[in-house]
Amino acid sequence: MSLKHNLLILIILWSGFSLHAKESFYPVSDINPILLLNSNAVVRESKILLEIYSTKKVSYKVKEVITVLNENGESEGVLYIPYDSNRTVNIKEAVVYDKNGSFVKKFKNTEIYDQRYFDGFSLYSDARFKRITPNVSTYPYTVMYEYTIDFNGVVDYYDWTPIDGYYKSIERTSYSIRLHDDMQVRIRENNIESIEKNEEVDDDVQYSWQLKNQLAIEREPYAIPIYEHVPTISIAPTEFSYFGTDGDLSTWESYGQWIWELIEDKTTLPEERILFLKELVKGEDNTLDKVKAIYKYLQEETRYVSVQLGIGGFEPLSAEKVDEVKYGDCKALVNYMRAMLEAVGIISYYTLVNAGRTAEKIVPDFPSQDFNHVILCVPLESDTVFLECTSQFSPFGFLGSFTADRMVLLVDKDNSRLIHTPKFNTNDNLWKSSVSIVLDLQGNAVVNDTVVYSGLQYEFIEDQLRKTTEEQIEDELKEGDITGAVYKNIVYRSNQSEVPSATRIREIDVARFAAKMGDRFFMPVNIINQSSSTPRREKNRTYPFRMNLSYRDIDKVEIQLPEGYEIEYLPGGTTITSDFGSYQYSLEADGRTISYVRKNEINAGTFQPEKYAAFVEYMKNIYDADNQKIILKKL
């Protein structure tokens, strides 16, 4: 090779390097200063194109440019793409730039982390993910990712939520849908006042939405979920294909029909199991008791293991297989319970639910695959029972905050429909305490308390029921709600009641329960259920706020005073009422006995921003009332 030829190659290579070195790519100085306010990261550009060629061929083409401003925005610069055997991921480019827009690094394919997704409880799964972590130590910096995700059939499409978190501003983001060969989708728009929208029709149909110059949103106390007040575009198919099966998502009934076809032949049980079940319930007088007996058997004999393999994400293992191996995921265990009930002549229904404390609500007039869990619905003559089949410990019929009070899809062949799971009311969600405190001459106290947790408050101590006494005491000490506590005994027990409840009984020695100053003791009014903080004040509240749980607390305390002391000051009690709840306490003295009664009721609800100041004041008044002192004086 000639010297001239070699020189030419060097010039070309140097030119390419120089382009990277000199080209300015999204310098931070170009960001409008207003977009830096309260922001940890800025979306410089985001372009998503959803191309739908057929029910079996769908492609997402994505380009993202994000500037990470500080360490709190670090996660925004990480690329994380889950995939499985039904979708392939091709990362075309991944580049890092410094604050001036100068090239820092380009990731090679060998530097992209590609691993099986392991959640700790999945036995069968084809889920994987690709991840790129920039690991840049100097802020700010900018990342640019360009990739495609190709699907071989889908049940549902990704929604577009351009504002998907707090403390992140947006320069420009867009989402487009291109429909080929007369394909159809259903679209639901929500909170799109700030969105530019366009529709084009030629050989293909294209919809597009764009958002520009969006300021970062600060997280406010008691915030409603962000998806409730930001722009969202939901997209769902009518007809779909998935792992060789065809379905229709245009109605809840048709989607339920597709699910039914996946489960209808899965309830066959071995003959010996059927005979066992019939013998198991032979002595039970009514249907409810039969269901309880079989549910108890399910909890004792099976365990939860996730199966997310291909169509297995929707199709359960057969009841016969679960009977053999004694494990299954939510789909398999629900189907197994359904099969066992069917074996003794009891009808039940496989029911889809979007589970989670803050899960998005199902939209009745927009059928979509937004479910992530399965429970069992058992209609009875006097009531309907819902069963959580994945827990070995959950009380019979208790859904809890994970699945209670929401729309679910009951799968019933050609009559599938939305129904609503039970809601726990204020009377159900009860804390009730009875406390005895005996004070000695040094200000130390022996405290005996019994607390009953009911309804959703039961969840606060549910885990303690399965722990040793040593573990329970260790957890109590970590909580640190009683300073100077030495635990002599603690007992937790589950109560057999219609509304799930559990009881905690404690015997505690408390050093310096009452603070001594000269010849006086200063003693807290409330030690067991005391308000420990108040909500942060917000001068300019922007969004509504929410109390998620309605509940009632009732505390009754008797304090025995030591001889030689009299009451110098006893708070007079108070009553507070508001839209957010009601609170009252009273104190009475009878000789050396002080009786304290406290009732606190909180109303769940969503409240407008202008009410937030009143809410803070209400909670502060409760805090002040809870933290008053009784003063004792030596005779």
UniProtKB/TrEMBL annotation:
Renumbered to this chain, the signal peptide range is: none
The superkingdom of the source organism is: Bacteria
Domain Transglutaminase-like intervals: 278-347
Domain DUF3857: residue ranges: 57-216
InterPro entries xrefs = DUF3857, Papain-like_cys_pep_sf, Transglutaminase-like
Protein name per UniProt: DUF3857 domain-containing protein
Q: Which organism is it from?
A: Draconibacterium sediminis
